[in-house]
Amino acid sequence: MRKKDWVMSANNQYPILTADLQVGFYYKLKSIKDIYFREALIKGIKKNKIADIDKELQLYVSDSALKKLATFSLRGETVFPLPILLQEDPFLLGYYRLLYGISQKEFYSKGPFGIFKSMEENGRLSQKAHNKLSDLCKSLIQTGESLVEQIDSFSLNMLNELQVLTVGPQLRGSKNNEYGQIAIQKTFSIIKDIVGPSVISSSPTTIEIKNDSGRIVEIKFSADPDIEIIEKLPTSSRGLLSIEVKGGKDLSNIHNRIGEAEKSHQKAKSRGYFEFMTIINTDFDYKLLHSESPTTSHFFNLDKITDKTNIEYQKFKEILSSIIGINI
After folding, report:
1. Whole-Å CA distances, 94 to 74, 204, 275
2. N or C: which end of the chain has fewer CB within 10 A?
């Protein structure tokens, strides 16, 4: 815990420690839950025939390992990766890496597995990776069999706990723990919840939905602006919404942060965007802020749009659905 993360309590006897590190962990974990955890595996299984999955389990995994999992009412694919599943959903490589307790750096940088990195990061299976997919599964299945052999009890909750133990240090050590990144991740998570019924695909950094007109709309993290929403047209695309998120809580620097948001929105405007949101993490008069960022169409307070009972959340939801073109 760094000193700057302390806030002195009213009686000045003990500092009040912040929970911002854990907040960042929570929102990042929430955003990857349906990509690398049990939810993702369930979706992958549903896209395939059980008979086809069983054929590959028999082909790749030892009978003794499958029998041991069966004694705990678990199917083999909960622990062992199969080409049929990874082809359908390349993101699932992250599910098994986390389960085996292998860090990203160790897995993708220190061995021959670098060619598979795009599977976990972007959900993309290159031709080179596709050609080596069977060999990848054979290697990882041996790791999985070692895990099964040495652990005496299995359950879905236990497997999930092992994955969280692996992802924890990864998230805590990343830049997502900085105030600004926490706020951006939080906003992204709120948006994902709102558009949930319309989502057709997602990754840790991108959401794709189909709007009521049948067009694809992409919501993604961006360097400038923080979050951008783009509608894909048959021959091109157009920017719908530029979102700047300012996570700092100190009022003394609010004017600098709004100035930065204005510059980003102006750049987005020059690229054809026509709606602009600035989300702040402190209370301030929106009318005063608008004089410093006239390009901003809508100001919101992050704490208020996090609260689904707050009128600002309702307004945020209505404006977002209108811009994207979905009925919520």
Report:
1. 20, 12, 35
2. N
